[in-house]
Amino acid sequence: MMLVFGGMLLFQALRDIKSIKGLVDLMPKDKNYNMVKPTLGILLIGVYFGLLKWFGFFWCTPPLFAALMWINGERRPKVLIPLALIVPVFLFLLFEYVFLLPLPRGSVVEWP
Q1: Backbone phi and psi for residue 29, each to the nearest 5 degrees, phi listed first
Q2: Which residues contact 43 (CB under 8 A, 6 or more apart)?
Q3: pTM for the predicted model, two decimal places
């Protein structure tokens, strides 16, 4: 429930940012610019961190990467699917075996 209210608050803040003096210059000058993509990306990351506790890094990260790439316009499956799998595997190997930092494993689904 907190994620829903946090998302609503964030969406309202991003939508109304134009009315705050001093921040208007930070907004893109293009009149067709839409705040839906950045807002959706931030909400997805919030959902990701919420699910990370239960499902762990291995099961949550590939869908997040795929969703973020999709939101930002990548539609080619030959690019989207391999990158959504390869980047998290690389990050897993880097953190687990090079930095020796364990990543969240989750409590619902077992993984290596």
Answers
A1: -80, -20
A2: 3, 7, 10, 11
A3: 0.69
pLDDT averages per 10-residue partition of the chain, 112 residues? 75 66 63 81 94 92 95 92 95 95 85 61
C-alpha distance from residue 38 to each of 43, 68, 69, 72, 110 (Å)? 9, 10, 12, 9, 32
Assess if residue 43 is contained within a domain.
yes
Domain for residue 73, yes or no? yes
pLDDT at site 46? 94
**Number of helices followed by number of strands (H, E) in the chain:** 3, 0
> Residue 33: inside a domain, yes or no?
yes
Domain assignment present for 105: no
